[in-house]
Amino acid sequence: MKFSQIPSHENVKRQLREMVADNQIPHALLLHGPTGIGKFMLARTFAQYLHCQSPTTDGEPCGHCHSCIQHDAFNHVDSLYVFPVVKTEKLKTPVSDDYMIEFKEFVEASPFMDFDRWTTFFDKKNAQPVIYVSESESLEQRLSVTTTLSKYKTVIIWLPEKMNEQTSNKLLKIIEEPFADTIFILVSDNASAILPTIYSRCRPIEMKRLSDETVAAYLTDRLSIDPQDALSISHIAAGDINSALRSMDATSISRMFFDYFVRLMRLAYQRDVKGLKEWSTDISSLGREQEIKFYDYARRLIRENFVYNFNVPQLLYLNRTEAQFSKNFARFISENNAEKIIEEMDRAAIDIAGNANGKIVNFDLAIKMIILIKNF
After folding, report:
1. Which of 26, 250, 279, 280 is 20 to 30 A from 266 (CA-CA)?
2. Is the dihedral of CA 209, 211, 214, 219 positive or negative?
3. CA-to-CA distance for 114 and 240, rounded, in angstroms?
4. Over the stretch 330-343, which tens digit does the pLDDT of each residue have?
């Protein structure tokens, strides 16, 4: 992988290149920031750049030398990986190498490192992967061997915050008295959860969330989806590409929520009480969790339609289907009723979460919409 293949973070890439150019590489580097922004990709590329036998003049690993090919395959002898794993009946003292095949498959499927997805790679369901003390003991043994092909060994630790206290203390000793040829690259979603003594011995580099435009461009370029739909998904994902990809997986659910929303608004406008009662029964059949998610979706669509009236397209995050509906619907949402509608939807979601009868709550909301939708 090359730096240019990783979206955004140009300032961080520059810092990493300068470390190598100036021969001022810290023995422990911490890349931290929100999930789903490419931190692990950057850590891997930096390790590859350090080991590359023919780096390019513009500061990229060549991608063709023996070291680069080994990095792509996760089998460079001087590059080690540490990541959260689980104990099993057969593996009482597990280490990362025990799950390397699964980890390679995971990284290929989820390059932006979706931890929830990683947990599905284990046979032991509902287990929370952690980094055990056995990992530190194994790491110390492996680092005592001199480098084979390169000037440096690199140790990429994904989610050091998943270490228990005993593991952290063991690792601290290794970082405090590092082998001269070893560089640690820690990749964290939550730096505040790392043992403070470990954090203090790392050079931290904070990575910011991706812009909505960057996430949208990634979705458009890699998955060939419509740019307007991509921007709508990206806004909701808040800079997290993993979240954006999960939203795409949930497209069918969003379309169902959209259909329920349109039906509610049309029936309320027509003052069709019988139809609204049927709507209340139908949406109640979705179950409590989906009902609450529907109201989350509905509140967002009310806000977007309120903004629609300002005629500032760059402020809108509607997909094509939603935008087509909003052309005619937005005029019914104004400062006179937008806040009140959202308040009623908030109240409905809270009541349903509190185990209230869904049919009654939904029908009550539907009847109130008759008045509110006309009060624009």
Report:
1. 250
2. positive
3. 10
4. 999 999 999 999 99
Residue where the block lists tokens 């929100």: 34
Half-sphere exposure of 271 (CA within 13 A, CB side): 2
Mean pLDDT calculated for residue range 191-212: 94
Give the sheet arrangement for strand 153-158, strand by strand: 79-82, 153-158, 182-188, 28-32, 203-206
What tokens were used for 178? 């590092």
Report yes or no: 113 and 144 within 8 Å, Cβ to Cβ. Answer: no
How far apart CA 348 and CA 209 sit, in angstroms, is 33
Q: Cβ–Cβ contacts within 10 Å for residue 53, how many?
A: 13
How distant, in Å, are the alpha carbons of 174, 271, 294, 295, 360 from that of 367?
Answer: 66, 8, 17, 16, 11
In angstroms, rounded to a whole number, what is the distance separating the alpha carbons of residues 183 and 6? Answer: 22
Instruction: Quick: pLDDT tens for 215-274.
Output: 999 988 887 677 888 888 888 898 999 998 887 765 667 788 999 999 999 999 999 999
DSSP symbols for 174-223: HHHS--TTEEEEEEES-GGGS-HHHHTTSEEEE-PPPPHHHHHHHHHHHH
* 314-371: pLDDT as tens digits: 788 888 889 999 999 999 999 999 999 999 999 999 999 998 999 999 999 999 999 9
Burial (CB < 10 A; 0-12, 13-18, 19+), residue 359, is: middle
Whole-angstrom Cα distance, residue 250 to residue 296? Answer: 14
**pLDDT bucket at 146, cuts 50 / 70 / 90:** low
